[in-house]
Structures are given as structure tokens and as C-alpha cells.
Known about the structure:
Blueprint: H1 5-16, H2 20-34, H3 44-72, H4 86-89, H5 92-125, H6 130-137, H7 151-178, H8 182-188, H9 194-205, H10 209-217, H11 220-228, H12 234-259
Helix pairs in contact: 1-12, 2-3, 2-12, 3-5, 3-8, 3-12, 5-7, 8-9
Amino acid sequence: xxxxxxxxxxxxxxxxxxxxxxxxxxxLIMFLxxxxxxxxxxxxxxxxxSLVISLLNIWLEVGLVSFYFKLCCGQGSNAGVAxxxxxxxxxxxxxxxxYLMQILYMLPGTIIYFIGIFIASVFFLAGSDVDTLMLxxxxxxxxxxxxxxxxxxxxxxxxxVIVLTLAYVLYAAWISLTYSQTTRVLVDFPDLTVTQxxxxxxxxxxxxxxxxxGLQLSFIPWSLLSVVTLGIGFLYLLPYMGCTNxxxxxxxxxxxxxxx
Length: 260
């Protein structure tokens, strides 16, 4: 049986009860690591350190998922900051592969989108004074040339860009929702490969994409409130969302098992 959003959130709060300090501490550590400023010096050492921090964040996020799993599965006594080490102890390359796969799945739509924007830009700029445009781009003049395209062509280009952008947003949302469970699958089934986890996520999300979308949208008021508190509220909201997402996953698995 599929639980409602309210039921999932209540289950998440119950799982977090007595473990809020650890949950907030872990989120605070993640925030501090992500906030490390490397300045504007783009030396090789800075670039390397930026890469290390990015990789570290990927693996630490997996550790948070492991932490939430323990809470939601009644293993809270074994949950804590030590869960940050989960990814490092369980084939860390798998989780890096998971991150890269997300980029690859988004790549076709992203390429098509930017090609479309480039083509629209070429048509739009073709109606301007090219010589003046080049002077503007090189900074020799401080005003844009007049665009002499017919109103119908300008309107058509605008509609094209809007439709293309909406299509890209829908594509990105579909990809994100379809493969949203891969990290949780990898934590739940440590022996699965990344491709198997993606297939498993796709199977779990069939008929449940809008359900997950509704769950994520229900956190918007909390997000706005967190922004008003200058970000402090996110220390509460992110663990709450993390546990709710694991509860959603566990409910999906249970529902699919019951259906079979």
C-alpha cells in the first residue's frame, strides 16, 4: 500500500526522534566542507583541491543516505557520524560512477537544448548590424546594435526558445525522477552494479514519478521558511527531507513486493 505524503513525513519525524543532534551535526559538517573558499586563484593546486572537495561531497552524501536508512529501518542505535565512511567502505567507485551516469543521462537533452539556443541566437543576431555587434562584443562601443528582424520572425524565435526550454525542463525532470532512487538502491543492495541500480530505480518509479514530484513540491514552504532564516532552517529541513525520501523508497519497495 502506498503511503500518503503526510504519512511518509510522520514516519520520517518518528525515525529522527532522538537523533536530531547527529542529523544536524552531519548536515553542518557537510555545509562547512561545501563552504570552503578557495579564492580566485586558479592554480593547479587549487583546481586539484576543488576536485577533491567535490568528490568528498559525493561520498559524504552517500554516508548521509546510509545514516537515514539506519534511522528508518529501526537501527538508530548504530547510526551516527561514522556513517560518513559508508561510501569509502563499500566500493566508492560505484558511487562516483552513479554521479557520472547522472551527467550522461542528462547530456543528450542538454546538447540538444544548447544547439537550439545557439541556432536561435544566430538567427536573432543575423538581423543586427554585424560590424556594430562585433565592436560591442570587443568592448569598443557600449551599446547594442538595432535588431531589424520582422516582428513575426522575432515572435517565432521567442516561442521556439520558450518551447525548447519547457521541453528541456520536462526532460530533466523525467530523468531526475526516473533515476532518483539509484543512490538508495546502491546503499540498500551493496552488491548491485551502477547500471543494475539504474534499472532498479526505473522499475520502482514506474507510475510513481508524479507521486515523488508531489512529495518534493510539498517541501517548498519549508524551503522558503529556511531561506527567511538565512539558511539556518536547512539544518532541520535537509535531514527531514532525507529521511522522508528514504521512507518513500522503502514504501516503494514494499508496495512493489506486495503487488508481485
